[in-house]
Every structure is written in structure tokens, then in C-alpha cells.
Amino acid sequence: MKKWMRKSLSCSVAATVLSLLVVGCGNSASTPESKQGSGGTLIIGATFSNLPNMDVYPDQGYEGRRFVGNQLYDPLIIDNPNTNSFDPGLASSWESKDMKVWTFHLRSGVKFQDGTAWNASSAVFNLDRILNKNFQYYYPQVAALLTARTKEITSYQAIDDMTLEITLKEQDSFFPSDVTQILFASPTAIQKYGNDDYQNHPVGTGPFAVAKVVPRQELDLVPNKDYWRGAPKLDQLILKPMSDPATRYAALLSSQINWAEVPPTETIPQIKQKGFQVVTKPYPHIWAIVPDMSKPPFNDKRVREAFVRAIDRKAMSDQLLNGASIPADGPMYPESNLYPKDAPAFDYNLDLAKQLLTAAGYPNGVTIAVNMPSSGSGNMWPLPMSEFIQQQEAKIGINITFRTYDWNQIITQYRAGFSGPMADANGIAYSLASGTLLGDLETSFVLKEPQGSDIMGYDNPQLDQLVRQAKASTDPAGRDKLLAQGWGIVQSDIALLPVVHDLNLRVLSPKVQGLVTPATWFVDLTTVWVSK
User: Fold this and answer.
1) Most exposed of 83, 275, 333, 405 (fewest Cβ within 10 Å)?
2) Burial class (CB in 10 A: 0-12, 13-18, 19+), 255
3) Three-class SS of residue 253?
């Protein structure tokens, strides 16, 4: 048997080449227990501009999924943040003989927090809600957000009370990865409150439940004592939207919060001196400029290369960001097994950047507009970073006007693409969790909206062919080799203007214990506790 791997995959899908059988295996997706202790209140200062909605696909980017969606709900397959593996979730196992028809054996004994039983009928209800336009509770707002993950599904049915079958349009080795993004809500709660009001009364099977909401200020969660993976150690989890890094830092120092996402990088030395825990770790994430390649100047690869070579990304990482990032040459981060080791790097070189810009027909420089978020999920420190880039690019004659928007506005603009509200922009600063899911290469650089997010006008037939081969592959090693080649093509074409890879900086009070530093964008809060 060959294991279906990403980076370190202890159990998830095994494939036999002869039978083309793919199965899920192992026990529940548990995480390491902290050595001792439990209880306390964890108060997180998040980068939200507002509290995320609480339906099965929260807004506010992946941070909404990290701190709200994954706490209230579960998927069939869990993207384990501690091991970067696919683990059994609401499905205890899964299999496919042809990688088109997938059978999920559902976990028995699980209930939603309102007492509703988890079974195949509940699963079908949730799939109808995002896929069946004739269903009474079909919800187009959520359906649209999940299109990239459900695009291959043609049908689904309950085989029996605890068995779900999903049929796809074609062979798809990426599908278990997509399944990790589909969360399940209580049918009883949706029927009781209706689609529009349900988000104010969310009910899942997840580790936490909503206790109180103070609009725009805080979301209070309490542990699900009957959680099927084991009750969380905390007594209470409080989420506070704090879009400004300085505000998060001040709140940390004054003990208003005991967990701060991405505080100002210039405060890192002081934070360490004060005894706080400074946590970083490489993970699949890049902060980049997404270029509009359908029009000048970024339709010319030489301009894209000039842009990248004009940024001293090492100085940005080491000096401006105090080691909270590393320079990026392409979307894939170096620790990934999908990293294209033979792809070209784009070292800082002002002379070459000027030559490239002149050769592209801009000897006197060029003026461009780039839309950017003021803060938000995964956006690190966009204001000082954009100022740094602006100063660097001016040295070669690229004059940038950065236009700042709220994060949710940026998300809306991105989904509309450069033919929508961004029609007069040349690029958009955007954080991408590239490599979190196996299908990210296809979603971001092959498929257009709504099935994908290739808004830059990028098209490479060789990449399309590699992705098709990888999707149909029954050999995990061969599939990953094809994906690495594909990421290399994207990097060589400079289809994304890379800046830095985020190292997932967060700062914790010394009282916060039990955190397993995540290897992905997401985080397991069930092991965390706060000492008195």
C-alpha cells in the first residue's frame, strides 16, 4: 500500500495502483495533550476588521475559518494543523475505487450541540444546502463561497444511515483535500431559524459553542463538553476583532488579551524581554502582489521580473519585519514537499531591474495603482510593507499608488477580478495560503471565478496539462512531482509577484499553555489552557 501524502501524512489515503483504491484510515483526529493543567479564559486579539459571520463558511478570510468555523463545526476529513495531514473527522474512514465515486463511512455516536444526530441524512441536508438549487434551504451566499471545493460534485446520496456516497465529474485525487473545507451544521437549527438568521444561532459538532456575541467587539465561546475528540481544556474562549497591530500590542501589555495575532514587528525584542512567548513557524502562506496580466504593464514578463527584483525582500524580512518572514521567489514555501527546487530565483538587483524595465519599453518608468487591505486575515503588516515596496520600486521608476480598503472589501474585489471594481487597478496586494490544499495550484492559477481564483489573466497550457495529470494520478509520489513542476512553471512565469512568506507570528502570555505550534494556517485550540 502506498500512502497518499502531502508533507507528513501518517494516515489518510492509501492507494493501490492495481485497484485504484483510495481509503481513509486510523483513529480520530486527536492532537497531543499538554503535559498538565486545564481551565482558564483564552482571549485572542485577532486581525478581524469585524467579527466573522458564523455560518459554515465564515467571512473575514481564512482567519474567520481558523477561529470561528473550525471551532464551531467539523468537516468529514480534518486538515490536521499540527501534522499537516488529512485525518478522519465526521467520517471515520473513506474510500474510492476509481477516484470518481467516494464513499464516506460516517462517525457513529456524534451529535450536534442541539442534540440532533449526525448521520447520512444530516450530511445530505448540508450538501443540498450548497448544491441543490431546488432544495428549500438552498443558500446561494454560502454555495458561492464553496464553489471551488464542490465544483467536481455531480451527485451524492445516503447509502444507509451512516454511509455517504459522493460522485464526481472526473477522477480527482485532490478531492479529500477539498472535503476538509466543507463544514456541517445542524439541520434542526437551520430549519428553525432559516438561512438568513441561522448565523446568529449557529450549531455544529465542533469543540466550542457560542455563549455571547457583542457586535463588533467580542465573541464568547464555551467548550463542548461532549466533543467527540475530547472536551477542550479551556473554560472559555473570547475572540476580539483588533485590526490595528498597535492596538493588539497595547491590549497584550495591559492584559486585555493574552494571545495577539501579528503584533507590530518592531515590538518583538521588547515582547521577548517582557517574557511573552513569541511563536513562529514556516507554513503555507505568501504575501504578494497579484498582477493584472491582461493589460500593460504587467502583461510583459520583463516588467513583472523588474518589479520583483527591485524589492530587497531579505531587508524587508530581516529589518522591517524583524525576522517574522522570509523572502519569497514564488507562491510555494521552501519547506513544502511541493516546492520547485529547480525554479528560478529572483534576487534583489536594481541594475538588472532597470534594464528589464527599459527593454520592456519603459525607459522613463511607469505609474501603476495597487489596491491593498488595511489589515485582515494573513495580511501581516500591509501598511509598512507597502511603504517599503513603494520606496524600493521608485528607485527603478515604477511609481505606485497604493489604495487602501477594508479586508472584506478587498475579498469582494478579488472575487470580482480586474474586470469589476478593480478595472482601473494594475494589481492587488493579497495574502494567499498557497499549498494549504492539494488543489490550490489548480484553483489559483488555472481556474477562473467562480470555480477558481485566477483573476490575473494567466494562461499556460503546459501547466493545465500537468494539473490534469496530477488530478488523475493514483501514485502519490508521481502526483506530487507533477504538482511541484506546476508550481515551478508559475514561479518561472512570475504569475504572482512574490514578496515574503509569512512565519505565522503570534505572541502569547506566559500563562497560555499547551499550544502545539501549527504547521498550517489553522490551529488546534483544544489542547490550550490558561494558568492563573
Assistant:
1) 275
2) exposed
3) helix
Q: Could you tell me the sign of the dihedral formed by the alpha carbons of 169, 173, 174, 178, in that order?
A: positive
What confidence score (pLDDT) does residue 35 get? 55
Give, for 431, the enclosing helix (H) or strand (E).
strand 427-432
What is the DSSP secondary structure assignment for residue 397, as one 8-state letter? T
In whole angstroms, what is the distance from residue 267 CA to residue 246 CA? 9
Whether the ω angle into residue 297 lies within 30 degrees of 0, i.e. cis, is yes
Helix (H) or strand (E) holding 287: strand 286-291
- Could you give phi then psi for residue 469, rounded to 5 degrees? -65, -40
> Average of pLDDT values for 85-92?
95
Q: Which residues does residue 419 pair with via DSSP β-bridges, in sequence order?
A: none
DSSP state of 122: H
Say which amino acid occupies 292. Answer: D
| Cα 455 from Cα 447, distance rounded (Å) | 9
Q: How far apart are CA 256 and CA 248, in angstroms?
A: 9
Distance CA 408, CA 64 (A): 11
Supply the pLDDT for residue 25: 42
Number of residues written out for the chain: 532
pTM of the model: 0.89
Torsion angles phi and psi, residue 386, rounded to 5: -70, -35
Main-chain phi, psi angles of 26, to 5 degrees: 100, -175
Distance CA 431, CA 377 (A): 8
Domains in the chain and their CATH numbers?
2-30+74-205 (3.90.76.10), 31-53+207-281+504-532 (3.40.190.10), 286-502 (3.10.105.10)
| Largest CA-CA distance found in the chain, in angstroms, rounded | 69
DSSP letter string over 29-98?
A: ---PPPSS----EEEEEE--SSPPP-SSS-SSHHHHIIIIIHHH--BSEEEETTTTEEEESSEEEEEESS
Cα Rg for the chain, rounded, in angstroms? 23
Query: What's the mean pLDDT when you consider all of the chain?
Result: 92
Pairing relation of β-strands 366-373 and 398-405? parallel
Residue with cell 512553471: 489
Q: Which DSSP category does 296 fall into?
A: T
Write out the three cell numbers for 121: 441524512
Q: Give the C-alpha separation, 420 to 371, whole Å.
A: 13
Count CB neighbours of 405 within 10 A.
17
The mean per-residue pLDDT over the stretch 407-421 comes to 91
| Single-letter amino acid code for the residue at 182 | I
Instruction: Supply the DSSP string of 315-359, one letter for each residue.
Output: HIIIIISTTSEEE-SSSS-TTSTT--TTSPP----HHHHHHHHHH
